[in-house]
# Entry
Amino acid sequence: MSLNATIRIQQADFDVAQEIAALSRGRSDVGAVVSFTGICRGTEGAEPIAALTLEHYPGMAEAEIKRHADEAMARWPLQGLTVIHRHGRITPGQNIVLVVTASEHREAAFKAAEFLMDYLKTNAPFWKREESARGTSWIEAKSQDDAAAARWTKS
Amino acid sequence: MRVKYFAWVRERIGKAEETIEPPAEVRTVDELIAWLAGRGETYAYAFEKPKVIRAAIDHTHVRPDAVIAGAREIAFFPPMTGG
# Structure
């Protein structure tokens, strides 16, 4: 079994179709690829926003995502996974984050992708600041994101 | 040791990082937060709700009772909002 985990923290946009194709290209052991793309909305709550600026902790962001990628690969039979998280200023309609998981069967790919996204939300050191007509403000963490991450904890 | 601040913790303190030498009796992350909060108005404002503040030692999340001895880099930041 060859595991292929790609983690990138970058300012530049990414090509979703290309990243999905890369996980199954040239191999016949991948039966399922699941992808999640997080996109900047034009509203936060009821308020229209002009842009989000994502700050991150260089070094720790990569390390933290790697830890969760390793855990995902230990928990589910994956053939590969890709996580890309952007930083800097991102306007509505632009990509923020991508998680792609590849496995023999769909269940592992779906579960691992959801697990990775839930942990990215609560544990990856990124912070969003929104720009709106009222100025700029830091987005507050949501308790439902903590609850979503907590359901993956083994009891 | 080197200390880094992110998001509104960084903005309130007015700097992204610095080198500090806390006294020996400051042993844990929460004791370091209390010590930093006493360094001036901007620090007091950043750490006014210490329970909200998250910390990492050498790129790993830690709890408030984590011991800081041996740490090269400690970071303080608000709850994360990535993804």
